[in-house]
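=== RUN LOG ===
request id: a7f3
mode: sequence -> structure
chains: 1
length: 255
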Amino acid sequence: MITADVLNEASGVRHGFFTRRGGVSEGAYASLNCGLGSKDDPDRVGTNRARAMDRFGVPGESLATAYQVHSDRVAVVEKPWAADERPQVDGLVTRTKGVALGILTADCVPVLFADAAAGVIGAAHAGWRGARAGILEATVAAMVDLGARAQSTVAVVGPCIRQESYEVGPEFHAGFTADDPGTDRLFRPSSREGHFMFDLPGYVVRRLSDLSIKTFEELPYDTCADEERFFSYRRTTLNGGGDYGRGLSAIVLEP
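=== RESULT ===
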């Protein structure tokens, strides 16, 4: 489990960006696959999720994760829901102690938020579609509705695919730069003519910087390049496809 200094210093908050190590799943899912949407054995996924929550000192059923759809929609979590009742959202917020907010990723950016003084936390799944649609802004706005202050909120950009591993085509580059010419600096030419290497975490940081959040941390880990520690959709695709595990990033207010 990887942690970030800015959240380690947040009183009453526990968090972690879990690696793929320490679970019971096998094969492509080895070993701490926490994705309910994967084709892994559901019992093993449940055991993995409970093991992750053990690190926080809360029951396995305390974990709330969403049916992520690359949107700008956010849910307020007052208590965890059943697996078949997961809302189709990409942001979660709460002020309820003991409820863990979880984001599942395999290259997309998990972002964890906390205003410890207000007792409000949030978590966002920021793939390029969701980040471009405004999921970060929507998550912070939902936290503010619960009593947080953006100026007092800290954010951490977790392990994700980094620029060295993320090649995109000309249409992708054109779409981003047409919306915001300043994003051109987040692209550099790849070895293939007309293609680019995209800095997804840099784009997320750019969006965070436009908010009133003053303190955030970007973790340097590349999920695609580090097969030993992380699941990766892009790596799986490059290796011929198939299903893949999902890594968990989670945050909880101490009960």
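=== NOTES ===
The chain has seven helices and 13 strands.
The mean pLDDT is 97.
=== END ===
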